[in-house]
Amino acid sequence: MTLNHLFIDTWRSGEQQFILKTSGSTGLPKPIHLTRSQMEASARLTGQTFGLEPGDRALVCLNTDYIAGVMMLVRGEVLGLELTLVEPSANPLGTFDPATTHFDFAAFVPLQLQTMLADVGTSGQPKALPILNGMKAILVGGAATSPALETALQAIDAPVYSTYGMTETVSHIAIRRLNGPDRSDLFTVLSGVDVGTDERGCLHITAAATNYDRIQTNDVVELLPSDSHSRVRFRLLGRADSIINTGGVKVQPEAVEAIIARQLADWHLGPRLFVVGLPDERLGQRIVVFSEGISLTEGQWQAVQQAVRQRIGPYAVPKAWQVVSTFVETATGKIDRKATIHRNEGGRERT
């Protein structure tokens, strides 16, 4: 991948203001104005959190037109990292020799890690495993990690973290360990970041990386007491603007997705999927599952419905399962749910 020379040249010229685009995963992409001091603060916090030092080698395999990729460039500049850039692809380590390649730090989207771990050699181990094992930290963000992927991640010795953040917070402000004995379903807020919730239970964030402005999100969280190290933690429940109102009962689709993904993982299935509410004359909205490339037998479909019924209740049971050959994605590799639904309107559903 060629370096984003426009950004780097602008950065090195001492520019103090930058305009980046949001990913467009929850709406149309919009421009966000960020200052140099915000981006420097975020980069230093990442370096402090993961013990990055000048001369450490970092792999950049994300789109450098968006915040996750841009901040890898900024970290290189601020922390003195040696950057190796490759074109974004499903298997960014596929062209590297595991015997001679070393990276200290990298950030991936879930699909990239899933693809690399599925690319096994004659030994039966993932070809990229020696490279991954040599890292100080591996970040995965941009989308939720499935139970199947989290199981596969246990093969990696290096610490792997799910990140929480957005363009407005200049990349991540909280992390969740995904592998090893310290794995957790809770996000830990990074040092110097203040968080709270509004009347909806949605997270708000204040930090040096936000220029100390309060950023109000639409992410519903369960905020927990600080741990023994005085670190604030939260459990991410879903988005307030994705709640499904079915028959007068509100359902958080992310909770349904998690139950389905765990059930599929028991059958060694790990397709990408999402749950939405589609218009229904009787219920207002009916709950529908969209999955990528995987259909279910009648027995499996009934087992999925029963799992949701037992864990949440009858009102949350999906009414249909729709198989899509390939999900539509945003420029940053996230699932574009609205475009996927629109492209597959009238498709065959299992009910």
TrEMBL record:
<dbReference type="GO" id="GO:0031956">
    <property type="term" value="F:medium-chain fatty acid-CoA ligase activity"/>
</dbReference>
<dbReference type="InterPro" id="IPR045851">
    <property type="entry name" value="AMP-bd_C_sf"/>
</dbReference>
<dbReference type="InterPro" id="IPR025110">
    <property type="entry name" value="AMP-bd_C"/>
</dbReference>
<dbReference type="InterPro" id="IPR020845">
    <property type="entry name" value="AMP-binding_CS"/>
</dbReference>
<keyword id="KW-0436">Ligase</keyword>
<protein>
    <submittedName>
        <fullName>O-succinylbenzoic acid-CoA ligase</fullName>
        <ecNumber>6.2.1.26</ecNumber>
    </submittedName>
</protein>
<feature type="domain" description="AMP-binding enzyme C-terminal">
    <location>
        <begin position="274"/>
        <end position="334"/>
    </location>
</feature>
<comment type="similarity">
    <text>Belongs to the ATP-dependent AMP-binding enzyme family.</text>
</comment>
<dbReference type="InterPro" id="IPR000873">
    <property type="entry name" value="AMP-dep_synth/lig_dom"/>
</dbReference>
<dbReference type="Pfam" id="PF00501">
    <property type="entry name" value="AMP-binding"/>
</dbReference>
<dbReference type="InterPro" id="IPR042099">
    <property type="entry name" value="ANL_N_sf"/>
</dbReference>
<dbReference type="GO" id="GO:0008756">
    <property type="term" value="F:o-succinylbenzoate-CoA ligase activity"/>
</dbReference>
<dbReference type="GO" id="GO:0006631">
    <property type="term" value="P:fatty acid metabolic process"/>
</dbReference>
<feature type="domain" description="AMP-dependent synthetase/ligase">
    <location>
        <begin position="18"/>
        <end position="181"/>
    </location>
</feature>
<dbReference type="Pfam" id="PF13193">
    <property type="entry name" value="AMP-binding_C"/>
</dbReference>
